[in-house]
């Protein structure tokens, strides 16, 4: 592997993009397009816009066939790789599984896989934007609102998960925070950047999954907006290292999501 794999895109899979637009607009300040992006092809795929004019990710509308096939509301991340097919083969050989085979899209080649414990994610070899061959994704930031600020893997086997992601994606694992009887909250890095953590599967998580935290300008305002717009609070805002607060919720369509930001009141 030439470089550690960045997480370059985030996608909300939901049966109700319009409802998601109302919810995330109120809580985060995003704008989700009211119609499918024609560049994507036959899918109902809509871009998530930030207030600064950039994109925060995309929304895939789950149709009846997808739902009948077992698809459920979910946030999912995309990891950048140089060779999707080789990565798929290596993941399968190491106990992972393929949910969607390698596929060419106008934006690049992608595949959906799961790690050996079952947490799903995409891998992608993106096509650089026209006029920006060295263009880099800015959907993740440790500090900025309206971006994903933290990537948290809840898994049935944290030791195996750390081995898997460090082996296949070049990530580091340095530092941890004790969680009492539950074990450790183990921090992961992409290069020199702390991107998230691996934690034991806790009560309330039916299966291993990646959970993402969106940056908000005010955690208490965001909490009120979640409650007022049909969301369900699953963990109230709690202080985290650095002085900010994090909370967890379920959006009105059923996708789990976290929020992180300062307390201003």
UniProtKB/TrEMBL annotation:
Residue ranges annotated for the VOC domain, each copy included: 6-126, 147-262
InterPro entries named among the record's database cross-references: Anthracycline_SecMetBiosynth (IPR052164), Glyas_Bleomycin-R_OHBP_Dase (IPR029068), Glyas_Fos-R_dOase_dom (IPR004360), VOC_core (IPR037523)
Taxonomic superkingdom: Bacteria
PROSITE patterns given in the database record: VOC
Name of this protein: Glyoxalase
Native species: Sphingopyxis bauzanensis
């Amino acid at each position: 592997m030439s470089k550690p794999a960045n997480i370059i895109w985030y996608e909300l899979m939901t049966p109700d993009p319009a409802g998601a637009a109302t919810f995330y607009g109120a809580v985060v300040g995003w704008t989700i397009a009211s119609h499918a992006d024609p560049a994507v092809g036959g899918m109902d795929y809509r871009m998530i816009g930030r207030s600064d004019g950039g994109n925060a990710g995309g929304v895939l509308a789950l149709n009846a066939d997808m739902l009948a096939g077992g698809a459920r509301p979910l946030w999912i991340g995309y990891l950048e790789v140089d060779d999707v097919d080789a990565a798929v083969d290596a993941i399968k050989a190491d106990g992972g599984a393929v949910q969607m085979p390698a596929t060419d899209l106008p934006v690049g080649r992608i595949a959906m896989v799961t790690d050996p414990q079952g947490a799903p994610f995409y891998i992608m070899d993106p096509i650089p934007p026209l006029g920006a061959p060295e263009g880099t994704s800015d959907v993740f930031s440790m500090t900025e609102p309206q971006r994903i600020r933290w990537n948290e893997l809840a898994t049935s086997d944290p030791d195996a998960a750390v081995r898997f992601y460090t082996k296949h994606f070049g990530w580091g694992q340095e530092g941890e925070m004790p969680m009492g009887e539950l074990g450790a909250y183990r921090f992961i890095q992409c290069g020199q950047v702390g991107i998230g953590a691996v934690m034991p599967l806790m009560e309330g998580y039916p299966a291993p999954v990646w959970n993402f935290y969106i940056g908000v300008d005010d955690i208490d305002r965001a909490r009120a907006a979640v409650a007022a717009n049909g969301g369900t609070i699953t963990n109230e805002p709690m202080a985290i290292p650095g002085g900010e607060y994090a909370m967890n919720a379920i959006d009105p369509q059923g996708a789990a999501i976290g929020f992180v930001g300062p307390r201003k009141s």
